[in-house]
Amino acid sequence: MDIMDITMPNEMIRKHKISACHASFFILISLASIPVASASETRITSNITADAIYRESEDNEIRSDETVGQLNPTLSISYQSARINASINARATYLERDNSEALNTQRNTYGSYNYSSRAEIIENLLFLSVDGGFTYRDGNALNFLTSDFINNSDSLVKTRTNSVAASMQTQKNRKFVANGTARYSLTETDQSEQGTDRLEDNNYSLSGNAQSNATEYGFIWNVSGSYIETERGESSQSDFMTRNYVANAEINVIDDFGVFVTTLHDAYQYESESNGVTTQEFYSFGAGITYRQNNQRFLRVAINRQIDPDINVELADDEDINEDDYFLSSELRWALSTRSNVSANYTRRSTGKTGQFSLNYNTRRLRARINYNDSVTSYSRLISSPESLGLFVCQQGSSDISSCFQPASLDYDLKAGEQFVDFLAPNYEISEAVINRESLIGQVGLQGRVTNLSFNTRYSLDSSVDTGRQTRTMSYGTSLSHRLGVRTKLNLSLTYAKVENNLKSTVGLDGESENINGSIVFQHTFRSPLSANFGFYYIERDNNILIEEAIGLKERRVQLSFTYTFANRNGARNANSQNNN
C-alpha cells in the first residue's frame, strides 16, 4: 500500500472543484498575518514511536501468531493569537509483520491527519471556523472496538471530512440574544475491500435561535430552527433534507406563574429505490402554563393539537398513529447550582414521540453528564459534525487520559491544539441510509492528585426511515491512569459492547456481536526526552449471524514501545513530557 494512495484524494473526485473549505483555510492564513495588539504563539511538537509487538490470535478456531514492528512519527503545529486559534496534526504508521502463515514479510503504511481553526472576524460577534481530517473507520457496525491496522485492517475505510462554518454569537448578558450558524461540509469514503459503498456527500446547514432575556416586563419569547440539506453525490438517490422550527411566547400572570403559546414544525424528505420520493411533515400548535423563577429555572406544560399529521409508520408506535389530534408536551430547564443543571423536553414530531434530556453535575474534581436525544440524520452528517461531550481536555490526536485534564471552568474555551475527548467512541455503520438515531450517553470523570478516571456508557438505536431496519449498540468503558511514582504511571482500559444488527429482519441477515477491548500499560518517562511503555492487550469478538456458526476472534498482544520527543522551535519539550517531569 502506497502512502500517497492514502493521503491524496481519490481520482474520482473532480479535481477542478475547489471546495469552500480550502478557500476559507486560505482566508484564515491571511488573517493570521494581520498585526494584532497582543502577542501570538506558534508551537511545533513532534515525536516518533517505535513498537515491538507479539500477538497470538484465534480466528474461527484457527490459531496463529506473529511479530509486528511499527513506527509512528507524528507532527503537531498550533498557532494562537488574540483573534485566531489554529492547529494541524499529522501521523504516519508503518507496519512490518512476519506471521506463521505468510511466506513473505508484509509491509503496510497508513497516514492520518486532522486540522481545526477558528477566527474572530468581528469582535464578540462574527466567527469563522474550518476543520476536517482524514482517518480510517470500520464500515461494519458488528466489528466495533475490534478493528485496527493490525487486526481486520481490510474492513477499514478511508474517510475524509472537510467543513467550514460562519457563526454569529451575541453576548449572553444582553436582554436580547441571537445566535446563528451557516455550515458546509464534505464527507468522502472509499470503497472498502469488504464491499462498503463509496460516499461523497455535501452537507449544507443553517441553524439559529433568538430569545428575550428580560423577564421584568412580564413577556418573553424564543424561536429556534434549522435547515439541513445533503447532496448524495455517489448515489442515484436524491438529496436528503430536514427542517424544523419551534416558537414560544409567554406572559406572566401572577407571581412565578404564567401562560404561553407554542408552535412546532418538523419535516424531512428523501428518495429511496423502493418508495421513490418520501416527504414527512408535522405541524402543531398549543397553549399551556408556566412556572418560572428565572430563565435558568422554569417548567412548561402544554396541550397541543396536530395539524394534518403525517407520521412515519415504520418508526412511530401504534398509539402515535392512532391517537387523536391532541397531545401533551413539556419543557424543563433547572439550574441545580451554579455548576450543575438539568434540562428536558417531550413532544411529538414526524417520527412519533420524541424528547431530549441533559444532566450536568460538576464539582471541583468530579464531573458527570447524561445526554439523550433523537434526530433524523445520516452517516455523513454524524461524522462531519460530531458531538463534543467529553469531560477531559486533551491535545488533538491524543486519547491518553494520563495527559488529559478537566478544566476548572464550565465554559472553558479550547486553546489551539486542544479538544474535548470522549473515551468511548460512537458506533456508526457507513451507508447512505437515512436513519432516525436515538442516542443516550453517560459519562463520569474524576481528576485527582495521582489518579484520572473516566467511566462511559453509550446506547444508540439507528432505525432506517425507509425500511425500519435497525442497529442497536450498548457499550460500557472505563479508562484509568494512576501515578505510581514521579515518572511512572499505570494505565488501565476496558470496554465492552453488544451490537445487534437488523433487528426487524426486513432485509438481509440478522447479526449480533459481543466485543471486548482491554489493556494494561506501564508508562515510564526518563530524564531525557525518551519514554517507554510496556503493555498487555486483549481483543475478543463473538459474532452470530442468523443460523450460521458463530464467528469468533480472540487476540492477545504484548507490546513494548519507545517514544522520542523532539524539541519545539522554542526549545521546549512536548507538553506531555513536561507534565511527567
Strand content: over 45%
Assembly state of the chains shown = single chain
Rounded to the nearest angstrom, the distance between the terminal CA atoms is 39 Å
Low-confidence stretches: 1-21, 23-38, 571-581
How much is the average pLDDT? Answer: 83
Q: What best-fitting shape do the alpha-carbon axes yield?
A: globular
Question: If you compute it from the alpha carbons, what radius of gyration comes out, rounded to the nearest whole angstrom?
Answer: 25 Å
Class from secondary-structure proportions: mainly beta
Please give the share of residues in helix: under 10%
Record field, number of beta strands: 26
Discrete helix count: 5
Biggest β-sheet: count, sense, barrel?
A: 24 strands, antiparallel, barrel
Overview of this structure, please?
The chain is mainly beta. Helices cover 6% and strands 61% of the residues. The chain starts with a helix and ends with a helix. Mean pLDDT is 83; it is low at 1-21, 23-38 and 571-581.
Summarize the structure.
With 581 residues, this protein is mainly β. 6% of the residues lie in helices and 61% in strands.
Give the helix/strand layout.
Elements: H1 3-7, H2 20-32, E1 41-59, E2 62-80, E3 84-99, E4 106-122, E5 126-138, E6 156-169, E7 176-189, E8 199-212, E9 219-232, E10 240-254, E11 257-272, E12 276-294, E13 297-307, H3 318-322, E14 326-335, E15 341-349, E16 352-362, E17 366-378, H4 379-384, E18 392-395, E19 418-421, E20 434-447, E21 451-464, E22 470-483, E23 488-501, E24 511-525, E25 530-545, E26 551-566, H5 575-580
Antiparallel strand pairs: 1-2, 1-26, 2-3, 3-4, 4-5, 5-6, 6-7, 7-8, 8-9, 9-10, 10-11, 11-12, 12-13, 13-14, 14-15, 15-16, 16-17, 17-20, 18-19, 20-21, 21-22, 22-23, 23-24, 24-25, 25-26
